[in-house]
């Protein structure tokens, strides 16, 4: 199947799953006993981090593949995964902050989870900046892949931060610590966000491909003109 | 070095650096030297050197220890880690999740009087998410103590 058709399928599927997901999370599932309706922000917060992780993982794997195989398409996937990952990193931080103010009492605190997460956003935003500064497509792909691979070391640190260190942020939840109805709503939203992520990343991949080919042609034209 | 050997060397060097950084975070001394909050036991173990330094203190609000003065807006409670308990003084109403028996992290200084003077009370939430039980209103405690009496 061509990437265009995959993107179209993922986009339609994302909307189809997102609509019932939002209903389940905002209406059907019960509010939290302690936090009330504020807790419903979790249905956007958790899925955002799932999509962030998916994006950075794709960025890491595709970067390794680019450096070992030197095929442009791996650079396109790396850029797509990381750029969309940065987007969900931002929605994750924003929803967390909005939830933190009424629950913790602060919008932000420098605890290990929040700090390592902020560093993660800076690393991958830096990746996008590096890409913008290197003009030669192949040199850009090489340097960017290196940034993505080294920067990815922070991703598992973010995940384990709530277990390794004392934090204000709570540790990971599991189906045992979350009421069954909330788990159902969460799972639907996880799927919806993964589909949404897949749609955005595939579209971004197609854009990267078009850009690469355009750049190639421009460079060839310049060379021909002398 | 041939270019292939050089490349392999670079890959290995990069891998060692990444694993090293990761290992340092996971098992190194960073976890001990950079703590987000101290426990009451750790605070008291510092003795006189703990006085006057801005620190975060984490623990549980001792049930029955909360005193709220609606006129002066002074909040007093006792903070425990199970072994050691420290009295905490703070100004203003705490976040709405505040309750007896809940985990909190307070920012402030430990005074020679043996009282922790806090300028910021943060409430720790657990990883539990539960539907409210019928007939129970956990927010009732907060409303009774902090809303009905005071607030400008």
Model description:
- The complex is a heterodimer of chains A (226) and B (152).
- Chain A is built from 7 helices and no strands.
- The longest helix of chain A is centred in the C-terminal third of the chain and has 46 residues, at 180-225.
- Chain A has helices at 3-28, 42-69, 72-103, 112-133, 137-151, 154-164, 180-225.
- Chain A has one domain (3-225).
- The radius of gyration of chain A is 20 Å and the shape is globular.
- Chain A is mostly helical and 226 residues long.
- Chain B has 152 residues and is α+β, with helices and mostly antiparallel strands.
- Chain B folds into 2 domains: 1-34; 35-147, Beta Barrel (OB fold (Dihydrolipoamide Acetyltransferase, E2P)), CATH 2.40.50.
- Chain B is 29% helix and 27% strand.
- Chain B is built from 4 helices and 6 strands.
- Chain B is elongated, with a radius of gyration of 23 Å.
- The mean pLDDT of chain B is 82.
- The chains are: A mainly alpha (226), B alpha+beta (152).
- The A-B interface holds A 30-36, 39, 42, 102-106, 109-112, 146, 149-150, 153, 156-157, 160, 164-168, 170-174, 177-179, 181-182 and B 14, 17-18, 21-22, 25-26, 31, 34-37, 58, 94-97, 105, 120-133, 136, 138-139.
Structural class computed from helices and strand pairing of chain A? mainly alpha
Distance between the termini of chain B: 75 Å
Largest sheet of chain B at a glance?
5 strands, mixed, barrel
Q: Helix count of chain B? A: 4
Structural classification of chain B:
alpha+beta
Remind me, CATH topology of the largest domain in chain B? OB fold (Dihydrolipoamide Acetyltransferase, E2P)
CATH class of the largest domain in chain B: Mainly Beta
Strand count, sense and barrel status of the largest sheet of chain A are: none
**Count of extended strands of chain B:** 6
Beta content of chain A: under 5%
In N-to-C order, the SSE pattern of chain A is HHHHHHH
Strand content of chain B: 25-35%
